[in-house]
C-alpha cells in the first residue's frame, strides 16, 4: 500500500512539474535570436502570435509543435495562410503538414534530448513546412 501511495505521489508530482513548465513557456513565450513569431488566425479572424523555433532542413523552413499546448498548430492546419516574423521582417507563408519520410528526416535532424522530452511530458511532435507565398 505504501508503494502504491508513493508511486501515485510521484506521478502527480511529475504531472505537476510538466504542467507548470508547459504553462510557464506558454505564458512567457521566451524570445531570443534563434526564435521566430508565427501568426495564425482563429475562427473569428483574430490574429494570434506564438513564439516558436525555426528549423531548417534542406532548403525549407519548418516549425514544430513540441509541447502539449498547441492551439497555434491547430489554427495553422485550419487556415494554413500564416505570417512569420524573423529578424524584424515579416513574410507570408503557407503552412504544410509534414508526414512520412519528410517528417522522419526533419525529426532525426532536429531531435530533442531525453531531458527535454521528460520535462515536457513526452508530447507527440508535429511539423509544419513553411512554403513562401
Would you give an account of this structure?
The structure is a single chain. This protein has helices at 2-28, 71-78, 100-109, 114-119; strands spanning 36-41, 47-52, 55-57, 60-65, 81-86, 89-97, 126-132. By secondary structure, it is of the alpha+beta class. It has one domain: Electron Transport, Fmn-binding Protein, Chain A (Pnp Oxidase, Chain A, Roll), CATH 2.30.110.10. It has a seven-stranded antiparallel sheet, with helices on both faces. A hairpin with a 5-residue loop joins strand 1 (36-41) and strand 2. 17% of the residues are buried. The mean pLDDT is 90.
Structural domain count = 1
- Count of distinct strands: 7
Instruction: Give the overall silhouette.
Output: globular
Radius of gyration using CA atoms only: 17 Å
Helix fraction, binned, reads 25-40%
Strand content: 25-35%
Contiguous helical run count: 4
Query: Would you tell me which CATH topology applies?
Result: Pnp Oxidase, Chain A
What value does the average pLDDT take?
90
Question: What is the CATH C-level name?
Answer: Mainly Beta
Describe the main β-sheet briefly.
Answer: 7 strands, antiparallel
Question: How far is the N terminus from the C terminus?
Answer: 60 Å
Assigned CATH architecture: Roll
Strand order of the largest sheet: 2-1-5-6-7-4-3
Q: Find the structural class using helix and strand composition.
A: alpha+beta
Name the quaternary structure.
single chain
